[in-house]
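agent: user wants the structure for Homoserine kinase from Cinchona calisaya. delegating to structure tool.
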Amino acid sequence: MASAAFSSLCCRSLIHPNNSSTTFNSNYDSKAPPNSASSSSSLSWKTRALPSSKTSISLIAEPEPVFSSVKSFAPATVANLGPGFDFLGCAVDGVGDFVTLSLDPDVRPGHISISDISGFPGANKLTINPLFNCAGIAAISVMKMLHIRSVGLSLSLHKGLPLGSGLGSSAASAAAAAVAVNELFGGKLSTSDLVLAGLESESKVSGYHADNVAPALMGGFVLIRSYDPLELIPLKFPESTNLFFVLVNPEFEAPTKKMRAALPSEITMSDHVWNCSQAGALVASVLQGDLRGLGKALSSDKIVEPRRAPLIPGMEAVKAVALENGAFGCTISGAGPTIVAVTDDEEKGREIGERMVEAFMKAGDLKAIAMVKRLDRVGARLVHSTP
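agent: tool returned. relaying tokens verbatim.
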């Protein structure tokens, strides 16, 4: 089993992907937050306190574990939501990743080992080296925040999300792992701390963006107001309003890095103004529970979707079919290839999903599956614990 440890908060691991040994260099600076001098400042970012009974803290004493084993869950997410590229996202109920974390006397104190990865087809592609695994990176980051040096941990990851699906697969793994480590040691850290841990994972795997990992941890809709300092604003969607996401995932992998490479380096002022206005309308619609307004804004991106749509066979036809069959709006979920549509009725959502699946086969020659899910208002959470 691969394992990793740390010697101080200012240390970063230096390891070759094919080498199971781990060494440390206290002078090494890995990818740091924007405008920071070194990675040692990662725990002192100015963060906005998120809704939580806990505040962002810097622990001095190593906490004792309160459980011998915990199991956590983190939901799928829809990032961007059309015009909200890298600053808007929401959590989706009923599908996501599970992490089981245990105290393990066979793992060296201060180290974490990934013992098993299971679940969705393709999960076996993921490395068990925690330094290069989404869950492992986030877990190590939380261990650093908590100063865990006296016990070894073993992590098992169950993937409920396909890789490269546009449903926040890497973020779900990171969020579940961060919550698991935190809860194993008594839940000492705030949500904002856990988002920072998730961001560290995302930055090494798919890019420095929080529009998946923030809603995966917080639930609901989330606006990333700023990255430096990190400021997150939860957007409360009215509980009395029915909202259903129609998620159609084709058998086609769209790696986030590849889809980000397709984006324009420059945009026109008119497109900038248009997208800003649509993003503002989307936020207002979320807060008001206005599904028609939400769908209209969701469908109106002029910057990102036009560049990514041609890379997903049949996407434009699928979107057209969704709107023709009564969806309030439709766009690419995250980097794709999953396409998301919104409606106010579950049965209607199933019908829309069936038409979208048919369109993927007809226009893109791709098999696809459809799911109809509600908004996840809770985010990553503990689902089981063993004393």
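agent: one observation worth passing along. Confidence is low (pLDDT under 50) at residues 1-56.
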